[in-house]
Amino acid sequence: MNLELLESFGQNYPEDFDGALDCMSIAVCCQFNRRGTLLAVGCNDGRIVIWDFLTRGIAKIITAHVHPVCSLSWSRDGYKLLSASTDNNVAIWDVQTGDCDYRYRFPSPVLKVQFNPRQSSAFLVCPMKHAAVLVNVNGKHSTLPLDDETDLNIVASFDRRGMYIFTGNARGKILVLNAVSLKLEASFRVTTGTSNTTAIKSIEFARRGECFLVNTADRIIRVYESGEVLACGKDGEPEPIQKMQDLVNKTLWKKCVFSGDGEYICAGSARQHALYIWEKSIGNLVKILHGTKGELLLDVAWHPVRPIMVSISSGVVSVWAQNQVENWSAFAPDFKELDENVEYEERESEFDIEDDDKTPERPTDKEEDTGDVDVVTVDTIAAFCSSDEEDHGDTSLLFLPITPEIEEPEEVPWGPPGEQVTETVVCTI
């Protein structure tokens, strides 16, 4: 996939409906892997359906839980998948084999799970009516400290690099904790302009940049800069760099996400299947995508590197993308598109084998510079790189091997008699 050629010169957000994905079950939640090649969809019957997003085909189905899957999270390398269910269980799955590596049971239903963005051995769990828990696969777990012991409606999220954990409660207080020592680094309270506070519903971080958004119960999405929040310290008063809301309908937001480049913010309505897209730098509403009327939105995910979104409503995964308009003049500058047939006037000597009117070329003494072309070295894709690390030699899981289905397998000339050999096709880049 050549991302440089896929870059569009127009708007970098989806504009229209681009089909649906049938999971053969009622979809509940979804999550892209880091490269956007695989899409994991959690279903109402406890299954996890992994889609190859380039071919729009099902690559694997994992029978994960008994009750509905309510949250998913990919590890950084894409080999592990973290899932949570309403049966109070949290499990880590091997994506290639479909086996369960670890399983944890909590005393209450789990609202959200998230892998550490830089360390696949640690993950964050947000149980209902309980403080968030930081779990390590080696058997250790730590309960995150609370600002108010009586307020247990906690939402939590890792920052982009996994160095800090941001937690929010129902009284509008956000705590910034060190991800290793769980020491309080900074804190502030989200207010509605007066002394009144508002409950924190979710905290989401952008894949690029230092911004994060806070979705609150007062129907306003606030965007903060994590560097400014840390600089303000404990009980600081950082100002949001942007505020987004629906001034007309006063819409309550179900799910808010950043675009892959962090330049746009999408919020899904809690009342209907409608997606609102704002430009982060200006704060203006650029697009509203409407789904089928009467449906309620369950989840939204933005592709990590492409202007594509997926949304879930009524158990169906909808794909939103840009309209691809064919522009044949891009292949030949003198190409003209005709609305109707035009009689073509042939130029003299246009179809002659040898053009007698052609001006002879002057011989040039300067030889063309023929240098060696390196066809072995793979350049690093800028969209996948981070400013604080080297991604050379990245071994992330991009695609899953697929076993072709043969209706009438014939006897193969090799192998022991009576044994059928199944060939596995492995997609590689």
Helix residue percentage: under 10%
Rg, Å, rounded = 26 Å
**Beta fraction of the residues?**
35-45%
Quaternary structure:
single chain
**DSSP summary, beta strand count:** 28
Task: Supply the number of helical segments.
Answer: 2
**How would you classify the helix and strand content by structural class?**
mainly beta
Biggest sheet: strands side by side, in what order? Answer: 1-28-27-26
Mean pLDDT: 85
From N to C, what is the helix and strand string?
Answer: HEEEEEEEEEEEEEEEEEEEEHEEEEEEEE
Q: What sort of overall outline do the alpha carbons produce when their principal axes are compared?
A: globular
As residue ranges, the low-confidence spans are: 412-429
**Major sheet description:** 4 strands, antiparallel
- Terminal-residue CA separation: 9 Å
